[in-house]
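Problem: given the chain below (435 residues), write out its structure.
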Amino acid sequence: MLTARRRTARRLTTLTAAALCGALLLSACGGSDSGSGDAKTLRLWHYEGPDSAMGVAWNAAIKEFQAQHPGVQVKFEEKGFEQIQKTAPMVLNSSDAPDLMEYNKGNATAGQLSKQGLLTDLGAEVTARGWDKKLSAAVATTSRYDANGVMGSGKWYGVPDYAEYTMVFYNKDLFAKYGIARPKTFDELTAAMDAFVKKGVTPLANAGAEYVAQQYLYQLALSRADRSWVDSYQLYQGKTDFHDPAWTYAADTFADWVRKGYISKKSTGTKAEDAGVSWIQGKAPILFSGSWWYGRFQSEAKFDWDSGLWPGSELTLGSGGNLWVVPKNAKNKELAYDFIDITLSKKIQNLLGDKGGVPVAADASAVTDPRAKALIENFNALSARDGLAFYPDWPVNGFYDVLVSETQKLMTGAEKPDGYLSALQKAYDKGVPQR
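Solution.
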C-alpha cells in the first residue's frame, strides 16, 4: 500500500556485528566497506522507520543474524520509499544490487520487477524452509507472480513477514462524552453517526486528496461482495462491472454519507496525515484506516480508544506487507535467505506484534500489550476466513490517481454516483492487461 507514511526520505544507516550504529556510516563504526561481492557482508535495504514495529523487529533480527553468523557484517542502508520505487529497475540491473531489499507488493511494483527478470525465484527456499506454511493464502497472494507479472500465481518472488489490514478506530472518550454507545453492528454504526451529527460533530475523519476516501468507498463495496468478486477485480479472473450491486451500493452510500454530514465536504482536499492527526487530536470520533497507524496511535493518542473490524463485512482491505525480495544480481543470496528466515521466527514475529505490527506467524498469547493482542487476533480472524481483499488502486497502473480525483468529484457533488462508476469503468478497462 503506497501511503504518506512511506514517502519520507531516509538516512543511510549501517549496522555492524559489534552494534547497531544508528545513522553512522560503516567507516565510523570501525568497519570497512567490503563491497557488494564480499561473502562476509550482507547488504540490506529497507524503508521502515527505526521506531516503527518493523524497524524495531528488523533491528533485532540483525542482531540475531550476527549472532548466528560470526564475522559476517550487515551493511544496512535505510532508503526512502520513493527512492527505491524510482531507482530499483536501474539499480537491480547493475552490479550494485543489494543482497536483500524491501519492495512494495503488487502487479505494478514487484510484479513488474519479476516480469523484467530482476528478482530471484525463491520457490525452492520457500519450500525447504517452510515459509509457505507460515503464510495464509491471502498473504501469499502478493508473493507470487506469473510470467506477465500478475500476482496470485506463478513463482515466489517475495516473502512478507508482516501484514496490514484496515479497521475502524473509535475514540471511546468522545463516545462517552456524547452518551453514544460504541457500535458493534453496521446499523449501530450508522445510528451512532446520526447521533454525532445531531450533536454538531462530524463523525468520520477523512482525506479526499489521498487514499482514505477511496478506502471508505471500497469497504462499502466489500460489504456487499465475496471472494469471487475480489478475484475478478484484483486478479482479472472474471469481468468487473462497476455498475454491479456492490459498486453501486458503495457509490450511492458514500455520496449519501457526505450529504448527511458523516463526512465533511471540507475534507475533499485533505491528506491522510490530516485525517490521522485530526483523530489523534480528538476532533473526530471515528477513523477507518489501516494497521500502519497502530503504533503511532498507541504513542500519541491521549484518550481511551479501541478498534474493531468493519461491522457486517466478511472482507476488508488488507494484504501481506511489503516483500523481502532477493535481486537476481545479489552476490550473497544464502545470507539473504538466512535473514528472511530469522524475520519469520517466533522470536522476531512476537516482538513485531508487541510493538504494534501485524506479524504473519506470531503466537498471540506471547504478545503482552492488550491492544496489540487484539490487533493480531483480528488479523488471525480475517486470515481464517480469507478476508483480505487488497486495495482498490492495485489492479491498474495509474488507478490510484483516478480514484482520488473521481472520489473528490463525488464528494463535492460534481459527479453523481452513476457517472463516477462509469469513469472508474473506463479507466479500469483501459488499464487491465490483456491475458
